[in-house]
Amino acid sequence: MRDVAGQQQQQQKSWPGGYGFHPFDVRATSPGVDFDFSRRRTAARAPGAAAGIAPSPLAVAWNQAGLEEGVMAGVQQGRKQTDPKGASVLCRAGMWGRALSVASSAVLLGAGAVAVRRILSEAATYRDLKQSELLRARAHVKGQVKATGLRDWVNNVADDQFGL
Predict the structure, then answer these.
(1) How far apart, in Å, are the Cα atoms of 44 and each of 51, 110, 118?
(2) Which residue in 141, 140, 105 sits closest to 121, CA to CA?
(3) Any idea what DSSP says for residue 87?
(4) Rounded to two decimals, what is the model's pTM?
(5) Neighbour count for residue 82 (Cβ, 10 Å)
(6) Mind listing the pLDDT tens digit for each residue in 78-90?
(7) Could you tell me the residue ranges of all domains in the chain?
(8) What is the dihedral of CA 161, 131, 103, 90, to 10 degrees?
């Protein structure tokens, strides 16, 4: 594995916009420690049951504010994949909408609040939002990281023409 941390540290440790490089260690679990619902642990609890375990495209999102959402393959259960209302609140459009909602409330105060509200509300497409001045510092950092340690990274730009 390439020493991405070393390469990045040689280049730059911090960027405008509050971004910085903060290395971390990846550590393996102790030998013999398994995830509680692994096939091996399930088989130990109920012989034969592990054969029935399979990955699932189902996911559930919940929070104390009242969000309860069942998602199958990225679409809310009970909705068609082509229905825009079937998008998860955790999808890009959902997050954009929530960011706009927070920015439009009185919670966001300060010198940059007006600019944030303007950019979030005036962006016609998701691509416009990602290329806005609001995210320019982030885009700069991502560009440097991709050039340094993620040279084979492929941008997902095929579906960024949607709006709110």
Answers:
(1) 12, 57, 57
(2) 105
(3) B
(4) 0.64
(5) 7
(6) 888 888 788 888 8
(7) 34-85, 91-164
(8) 50
